[in-house]
Amino acid sequence: MEQVSGSSHLTITPDGVVSIPEVAYTATAVIQAALINPSSGANKVIFQKEVTLIAGKDPTVIFQSIMKTFEGKLGEIQSKDQIAKYMRSSHNGCH
User: pLDDT (tens digit, 9 = 90+) per residue, 57-67?
Assistant: First the structure.
């Protein structure tokens, strides 16, 4: 996950923890996750969402909600990928 735009108060650690400093009342940003094609190096955005963290609300709860949405999208992508692989392999044997 990475921050695409928004408040400089919002930070995302490499392991995906989103936080704001105690001095900030609120922070809004657009975060996204992308897959990188190992051959071409091209990115494909698979998830993007604007998030707002508000001081006093548990950011863990907010982030868990975001991750649930992301995991659902990732599951859809994995299913489509499996279908595409199956279709390619079944067509390869039909010459």
Answer: 566 766 777 77
